[in-house]
Amino acid sequence: MADKKKFSFSEKMARLEKIAADLENSEIDLDEAIKRFEEGARLASELKDYLEKSKNQIETVKKRFDK
Q1: What is the distance between the alpha carbons of residues 4 and 25, in angstroms, rounded to a whole number?
Q2: Measured CA distances, 5 to 2, 8, 11, 57, 66 (Å)
Q3: Residue 17's domain spans which residues?
Q4: pLDDT digits 0-9 by tens, 4-61
Q5: Which residues touch 9 (CB under 8 Å, ≥6 apart)?
């Protein structure tokens, strides 16, 4: 089974940026490009979810102190 290490937001963002750069600038074969695209799509979804949760947490804190 693959290691399920949790990566930080910054680490995931850096990996996504690397994937994007590789897809734009590298001469990689189609199979590898598809694998990287899939990984990038998964990372983008995870990052979006994280940002949405963070936004909700901030709104909850603001509501508590805006009374």
Answers
A1: 29
A2: 9, 10, 12, 24, 38
A3: 9-65
A4: 578 999 999 999 999 999 999 878 999 999 999 999 999 999 999 999 999 999 999 9
A5: 47, 50
Give 34's contacts (C-beta < 8 A, 6+ positions apart). none
Residue 51 lies inside a defined structural domain of this protein? yes
**Over 60: is that where the pLDDT of 2 sits?**
no
User: Residue 29 carries which side chain, given as an amino acid letter?
Assistant: D
4 within some domain: no
Which tokens hold the place of 29? Answer: 């074969």
Token code pair at residue 52? 């949405």
What is the number of domains present in the chain? 1
